[in-house]
Amino acid sequence: MIKIALKDLFGRKLRLLLTSLAIVMGVAMVSGTYVLTDSINAAFGSIFQTAYSTSDAIITGKEEFGGSQNAPSFPEATLAKVKALPAVEDAAGGIGDMAQFVGKDGKVLALHGAPGLAFSVSSTDQRFNPLKLLQGKWPVGANEVAIDDKAASKLGAEVGGTVGLLPQGGKEQRFKVSGIARFGNSTLGGATLAIFDLPTAQALFDKKGKLDEIDVAQKPGTSTDTLLQQIRSVLPPHTQVRTSQAQATKATDETNSQLSFLRYFLLAFGGIALFVGSFVIANTLSITIAQRTREFATLRSMGATGRQVRRIVLVEGFITGLFASTIGLFLGLALAKGLVQVFKAFGADLPQAGLTLHIRTIVVSLVVGTLVTVIASLRPALRATRVPPIAAVREGSILPPGRFARFGLPAALGLCAISGALVGYGAFGHGLSTGLSLALLAAGVLGIFLGVTMLAPRLVRPLASAIGWPATKIGGVAGVLARSNSMRNPSRTASTAAALMIGLTLVTTVAVLAEGLRASFRDAVKSEFHADYALTSQNVFLPGSPEPTEAIRKSGLASAVAGVRGGEGRAFGKNVQVTGVEPGISQMIRLKWTVGSDASLDQLGAHGAVVDKDYAKGHHLVSGSPIHLLTPGGGSLDLKVNAIFDPPSGGSPFGRVTSSAKAFDSVFTNPQNLFSFVNMSGGVTEANTKALENVLADYPDANLQTEQQFVDNELAGLDKFLILLYVLLALSIVVSLFGIVNTLVLTVFERTREIGMLRAVGMTRRQARRMIRYESVVTALIGAALGIPLGIALAALFDRAIGGGVPFAVPWGTVVVFVIAAVIVGLIAAIFPARRASRLNVLNALQYE
Predict the structure, then answer these.
(1) Secondary structure of residue 221 in the 3-state scheme
(2) 495/486 Cα distance (integer angstroms)
């Protein structure tokens, strides 16, 4: 039986290829995701290993929470104490911080979301320097900087020239380029490097008398444990020491943890593609089994058992899955490179160190792809055993319905009801963990898809009749036949349309939710924003220096100006977003208060705090309640609740806990502004805008915006993320396209004699192509007719789950685009099958068996 399965499978190579494509795409996404994320992780690991490879031990500040990027500086005097230890052969201190290059256009250099790194090196002791000098020399003195070769290329900078640098929390300064360097063999993605000598770095980043790190080399013959023990004996508070390997591992793990969401995010889309592919596989095998009724019946009449026939189908499914998964595995390598470019286009230039293919990736890709195909083959395999042996002597026999067919409608309705309950509980259930909630939602949505697919055959005839009606008017006989063909086998049409339905359901859900979020954000800004101008960094999602705000205040041009600081703290044992507001903010921000008023924002003093209503409810806070706030650097702030506000659904400019800017600055290192607000006499005018821009000319990261510009810039990030979702969901659309192609090609084979007879009685090749084309478009539109309403319904449910007054808004223009896209998918899918149908030889077709 295995030989029969292999002979049949490879005897129909086109069917094998078309069937495999659906799984190939899904497995490629899974494989590509693992390869991409493993490659990024390996690149970061290589970067940290290289950075710490010259040391035996690393001394850093000790962060209380939030990762090593929040580690505080420590006294420079620690270096002398460490050098004096018996186990230490050499040690060097350094500064590490952030600085952005300023381009020739006077704006900060775009880094695609990557950081602008700045640190110090010694021009004399190169023992701990991981950089390679390509040109020039290492910087010496207050006006020199060495830069990386990638930044030099972007800036058009050469040794001896000058570049502008904007240190974090500072003002632009000009430096002479002393040299050009490169870091290791790994690309740093979009990150740039600015290298100074130690005194310059300390002055530039306001860390005089401080260090961020000490690299230590141990004396030969000294054990690592002895070295660490001696170092710990002289360390000041809030510092720690690790071996270089442990420090590299910790830094790598922190980075990988932050990027883990990317893996799960992309794997979700690979899972969607495989889920859609399973429909294509099941539909294809169902069609081929129906076409091979006489073949299976002949085998049964010759003594083959039902078990053996099932084995034939399952073996075909297994081989198809293994074949497709193998191709998808290696296609994933190319897809990983493509994903790098996709993320770069969307503003995320990640480091790379070559493609990494782990055994885990190979095993998961092959097992998942093959398993999905075999599972999709189960139902067709069971159907194959229902072929009666008598069918071997009859032409035109069809598979009898299963004994459970009469329970199809109740089962479909029950599955939809249970799945809807799972979605509702996952969305509205109280006390659920995030993981459990997502699992319930995923299981419920998948169940709804299966339930609607089971119901779809009962809806196909009326839908095809209505959707195909225009084809009968504009396509003549070809249109009439196309509509009839779509209605002839409702199960087949429904299964083919279901693959497209899933993709369109998801994109519709995303579009509707995004429209609601847009509307809620616009409403929030309209109700809260009472300033003339907003001031942010060029990258509106990252904080910026308070200096531009202070420059406007000192200019005397503004009638009111106030900044909003931003940072992360910890209160009641959990991390919380903290903001600090400057006096005058009440004139530019209006909130709905449950306790206090807008004036409360200007009366916080040294210990006052404002919290939002949900945070107050969650921690049983009332006016006068104490809040003990910790900062990552080890600082603390004792606050008391002065006021409680009710934020609108679109969010507020404040964190869960808000203090005065003065109190915020006293405990947070290098405070940054999320944004600032400015009021001008006369409001927004061309003259006022010009005057403010003149003040901000020396601040290349400052971004002055009107209310509408502020809204547009904030929504641009949502729109960019939405486009990324559409691009990734397009994979499921492509898989469903192959499903339509596959179905049409197989039905052309099935109707070879029928098409031959139509051609014999006068149908032209053009009419044959048109008939297949209309049939494809009708099938695609049935998918749209099922998917788009289902997507809107799911969006409505999720919108209710989000709560907070997020409006439910359907973007009808986008819905129309989706319908047009379904038509285009149908037309594209019909190209090959239509050409094949029109080129059938009439005489051969009439004799076809």
Answers:
(1) coil
(2) 12
Q: What is residue 22's three-state secondary structure? A: helix
Tell me if 249 sits within 8 A of 49, measured CB to CB.
Answer: no
First to last CA, the chain: 23
C-alpha 353/C-alpha 341 separation (Å) is 15
Residue 112: pLDDT above 70? Answer: no
Torsional sign, CA 459, 465, 469, 471: positive
* Residue 580 confidence (pLDDT) above 90: yes
Distance of CA 692 to the CA centre of its chain: 37
d(C-alpha 182, C-alpha 133), whole Å: 7
Residue at 26: amino acid letter: G
* Distance from C-alpha of 508 to C-alpha of 501, rounded to nearest angstrom: 10
Relative orientation angle of helices 490-528 and 476-488, to the nearest 10 degrees: 90
Per-residue pLDDT at 394 exceeds 60: no
What letter does residue 354 receive in the DSSP assignment?
Answer: S
Structure tokens at 71: 């580690």
CB 284 within 8 A of CB 373: no
Residue 372 contacts residue 68 (beta carbons within 8 Å): no
CA angle 820, 822, 826 (to 5 degrees): 115
> In the structure encoding, which two tokens stand for residue 409, read together?
């409608």
The arithmetic mean of pLDDT across residues 627-639, rounded, is: 87
* Distance of alpha carbon 610 from alpha carbon 498, whole angstroms: 51
Strand 116-120 to 96-102 pairing: antiparallel
Q: What is the mean pLDDT of residues 525-554?
A: 86
CA distances for 349 relative to 345, 482, 622, angstroms: 8, 48, 45
Q: Is pLDDT of 392 > 60?
A: no
> Phi and psi for 118 in degrees, rounded to 5?
-140, 135
Non-local (6+) Cβ contacts of 96 within 8 A are 117, 118, 119, 120, 212, 213
Split at pLDDT 50, 70, 90, the class of 692 is very high
Residues 656/576, Cβ–Cβ less than 8 Å = yes
User: 209-224, pLDDT tens digit by residue?
Assistant: 999 999 999 999 889 9
Q: Is the pTM of this model over 0.85?
A: no
The pLDDT of 517-523, averaged and rounded, is 81
What is the pLDDT at residue 270?
79
What is the predicted pLDDT for the residue at 170? 67
* Torsion angle in degrees (nearest 10) through CA of 825, 827, 828, 833: 120
Residue 295 CA to residue 288 CA, distance in Å, equals 11
